[in-house]
């Protein structure tokens, strides 16, 4: 064994600049500015580890006691650095509550979310159903029973979809906690799902107008109001209501609408814009909307900002319809499947979906704009009264 206790208290006080060994890995490091640092060098699992034991305010006797403690931890096969970090976290348990870690996980992830998550939809299932019950619990203490008890009241009822989203987000938060070095049970969400059982409430699809009936509905949108025009353009383009409601006049160039990448749902690359080919009918609707432009937006609300997400849905509700605006995307997709020979990837791209495996996606360098332009022209013809005859794409087999 190497010699120990080489230094004296008197030497420590007057030690010159340099590194001075007290033995068995304990060193005094004296800096040029007169400051000092105690450092313990250890070997754990074949790896060299260094841990600071304090500065000049730590006496030689205290440094030796600390060194003895952490040597015994290393001798037991545990990492002293990680053990000390765990002790610090345990002393500050209020900093590792589920609420704190959730907020940190959201900050790290929001760049991937639409509008950086400002609409609150990512956080909403947690804020409503989880954090009121578990927010103050240290994330290291959360297990499958906590999650089950939290979500059980809504797992089989009307809140089933929110419960599914909450469970998925809890998994993301626990993975974030693990990345921070916290000892959490990453299997807790999966085990909670097993305890909850299969949800008895089937996911409800948004009711959609059959593609054959779209022309009849479109014809009723004859008034040049913001709501009628917005619904018309929604039907003609197949976009989601978000990009449509926030459509700006400067996004239209010629017969193409450029939707900013960060406005597209489900896309990891938020820098990639999406180009929507506009039919003659769509351009006509846009021209009718231009007189309403305010602050650059073509569909402003009566007071401030743009029309709400519910504005178009309310019109359909007042008519006694069960269908909703988002359903027109299904109408378009069914028409593409039944009345055109468009390949699957082209039809999916019409709706802004990114189809194919990861390998296919990584090599694809086209957005099928020419094929989509033909399809959207024919869709507009159908919507405005033409028959649903088969649409052939140029070059298609």
UniProtKB/TrEMBL annotation:
Keyword line: DNA integration, DNA recombination, DNA-binding
Protein name, per record: Integrase
Pfam entry (one): Phage_int_M
Coiled-coil boundaries: none
InterPro entries per record: DNA_brk_join_enz (IPR011010), Integrase-like_cat_sf (IPR013762), Integrase_catalytic (IPR002104), Integrase_DNA-bd_sf (IPR038488), Integrase_DNA_bind_dom (IPR025166), Integrase_recombinase_N (IPR010998), Phage_int_M (IPR053876), Phage_Integrase (IPR050808)
Alphabetized GO MF terms: DNA binding
All residue ranges annotated as the Tyr recombinase domain in the record: 204-376
Family affiliation: Belongs to the 'phage' integrase family.
Gene3D superfamilies to which the protein is assigned, alphabetical: 1.10.150.130, Integrase, DNA-binding domain (3.30.160.390), Intergrase catalytic core (1.10.443.10)
PANTHER family assigned to the protein according to its UniProt record, in alphabetical order: PROPHAGE INTEGRASE, PROPHAGE INTEGRASE INTS-RELATED
BP GO terms, sorted: DNA integration; DNA recombination
């Amino acid at each position: 064994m190497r010699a120990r206790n080489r230094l004296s208290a008197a030497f420590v006080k007057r030690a010159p600049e340099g590194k001075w060994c007290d033995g068995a890995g304990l060193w005094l490091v004296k800096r040029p500015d007169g400051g000092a640092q105690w450092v313990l060098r250890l070997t754990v699992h074949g790896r060299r580890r260094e841990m600071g034991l304090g500065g000049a305010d730590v006496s030689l006797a205290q440094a030796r006691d600390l060194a003895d403690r952490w040597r015994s931890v290393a001798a037991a096969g545990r990492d002293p650095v990680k053990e000390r970090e765990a002790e610090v976290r345990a002393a500050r348990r209020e900093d590792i509550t589920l609420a704190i870690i959730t907020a940190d996980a959201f900050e790290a992830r929001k760049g991937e979310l639409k509008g950086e998550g400002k609409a609150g939809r990512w956080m909403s299932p947690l804020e409503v159903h989880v954090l009121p019950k578990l927010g103050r619990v240290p994330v290291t203490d959360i297990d499958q029973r906590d999650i089950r008890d939290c979500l059980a009241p809504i797992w089989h009822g009307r809140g089933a979809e929110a419960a599914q989203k909450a469970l998925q987000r809890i998994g993301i938060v626990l993975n974030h906690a693990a990345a921070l070095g916290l000892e959490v049970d990453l299997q807790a969400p999966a085990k909670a799902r097993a305890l909850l059982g299969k949800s008895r409430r089937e996911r409800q699809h948004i009711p959609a107008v059959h593609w054959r009936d779209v022309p009849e509905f479109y014809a009723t949108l004859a008034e040049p109001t913001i709501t009628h025009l917005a619904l018309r353009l929604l039907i003609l383009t197949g976009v989601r209501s978000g990009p449509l409601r926030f459509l700006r006049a400067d996004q239209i160039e010629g017969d193409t609408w450029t939707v900013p990448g960060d406005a597209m749902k489900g896309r990891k690359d938020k820098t990639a814009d999406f180009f929507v080919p506009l039919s003659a009918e769509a351009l006509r609707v846009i021209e009718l909307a231009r007189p309403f432009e305010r602050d650059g937006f073509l569909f402003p609300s009566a007071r401030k900002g743009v029309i709400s997400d519910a504005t178009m849905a309310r019109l359909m509700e007042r008519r006694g319809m069960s269908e909703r605006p988002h359903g027109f995307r299904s109408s378009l997709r069914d028409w593409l499947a039944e009345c055109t020979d468009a390949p699957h990837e082209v039809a999916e791209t019409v709706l802004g979906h990114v189809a194919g495996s990861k390998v296919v996606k990584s090599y694809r360098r086209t957005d099928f704009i020419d094929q989509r332009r033909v399809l959207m022209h024919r869709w507009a013809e159908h919507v405005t009264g033409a028959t649903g005859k088969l649409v052939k794409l140029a070059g298609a087999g």
